[in-house]
Amino acid sequence: MACLGHPIVSLHSLSRSVANSQCWRPKLSGGAPPLRSRWRMDLSPSTSVASSAAAACAGTTTSSSSSTSFSPRCTGHSRMPMARSQQARWSSVITAASALAACAVGRRQASASKWRARPSMLMARHDARSRSSLGMRRSGFSSSPSETRSSVASAREPVRPGKVSAVLPVAPEIERPAYMLPGVCVDQETGMYKHDFLNVIEVKTPDQIAAMRVACALAREALEVAGRAVAAGVTTDQIDAAVHEFIVSRGAYPSPLGYMGFPKSVCCSVNDVLAHGIPDDRPLQDGDILNVDVTVFIGGHHGDTSSMFVVGSKPDPAALHLCKAGQRAMMAGIEVCKPGADFREIGMRIQDVSDAAGLHISELFVGHGIGSYFHGAPGVIPFENDEYQGTMLPGMTFTVEPILVEHTKLEASHRIWDDKWTYQTLTNARSAQFEHTVLITDDGHEILTGPSVDYLTLAGLRR
Q: What does the entry list as the binding residues for a divalent metal cation 1 (predicted)?
């Protein structure tokens, strides 16, 4: 179950606190912003623009009781004639912009070269992607030679909210996670329960790792149950009920149930729903694609995994392209996981796959640390970024779960349903997400929720 800006806390602030060894103060937003570096400056009539730029580069700030937001306009505070005032202000703006640009490029290049030498720098790669988006994707064409924007999206109806059934019961003898216990400490600003590993990456003991293996193996079994229930005419509520019954029959608790008010045991995100779709009475239709996200709690630990599934045996080629690329992207991110690896390498590899497929990566959602807690440090950013979070150590466990989206720039084109959980694209663009829980071992990594569910065989597409 991916972390996001709202209603779950964005791990962007968490990532910064881990790197800077500062106290993490979670904040809510209507959708986590892109996790790339952003420059912001306040200027006042009595503050030198050049000194403000220098202070920003040095990591310090200048303040003034009459400060205004950085903007190339005359505020009327100056006693100079209007024309001269505007000319001076524009000159100051250009000076500040030049200083900040030079500083930003220098810091970005220094950060990139410090952790990993690459043939091309981050800025060059970003510019190339921007040109591709502006030149090809906004014109209706994919940068993938094998795929163009088809009429399928326009012909397909966007997913609409359905009726959500009552909460399913869980036997009282089944162990509950901490956030379901009475008296749990909850952050009043975010609604998220507090624990020791919100801003510290946990290195687990052998006993904890053994418990994680049990929880993750059960989560993988539950995901297989969900996949076998997928068929045209079946509702996502029925899939939820099947998985719920399986989990509780094994003496485990379905982690999403009751987590910050989530009313169901799994997340089912169909077609243009990005993530955290609440199961309801909408029947699945032939040609739909959906993500089922399963997390179980047993033995004091959580196991988290998800997969795409295809409804029917004749999906359109664009849907298969999206799903296959999503799985490749997840596996590419996992392949770099080993002791000493930088967490940013995960996003770098995922970005490579997404770019090659002509798709976009959701910057609203990140992976997360997991253990006796559902969500914790680190925030595993699934796209190219310069957010340093340290290096991987044996005993760390976290999820890798990128969301790839077809032919759209996501951060400007999504809505949140009234349920405060369901994120949906505005352009009817479909998304694909795969997720595994990963353990860092002494000599590499172990996929605790592996092997991946063979969704193609379940749909009759691989014989």
A: 293, 304, 435
